[in-house]
Amino acid sequence: xxxxxxxxxxxxxxxxxxxxxxxxxxxxxxxxxxxxxxxxxxxxxxxxxxxxxxxxxxxxxxxxxxxxxxxxxxxxxxxxxxxxxxxxxxxxxxxxxxxxxxxxxxxxxxxxxxxxxxxxxxxxxxx
Length: 127
Fold this sequence. Notes:
This protein is an alpha/beta fold. The chain contains four helices and seven strands; from the N terminus they run βαβαβββαββα. α2 packs parallel to α3. The relative contact order is 0.19.
């Protein structure tokens, strides 16, 4: 199945995911859309280091990284005005109270749903 996502072509995307198979799936999907993938990062510490200093357009964040919540990364990306999307098996319950603007793509995800949500996050950040 070929995925077309013209708005994602040439975008640099940070992938924060601690499960290798899921990370590879996301990476392959993003590359198929013409993105450059940064990472994947498997820990909050590694993700924070990249989020502080690297330049990228968008991020995909697994909420739970080996028992540690990814929220500090999300807060930093919010401060830097970099759009992101959570991945979580907990659905909307993964979003902390008071952060209704943070969006979640449920796990397991369908490729076209993840791409559509990434495109929407990018479009929302532009406006």
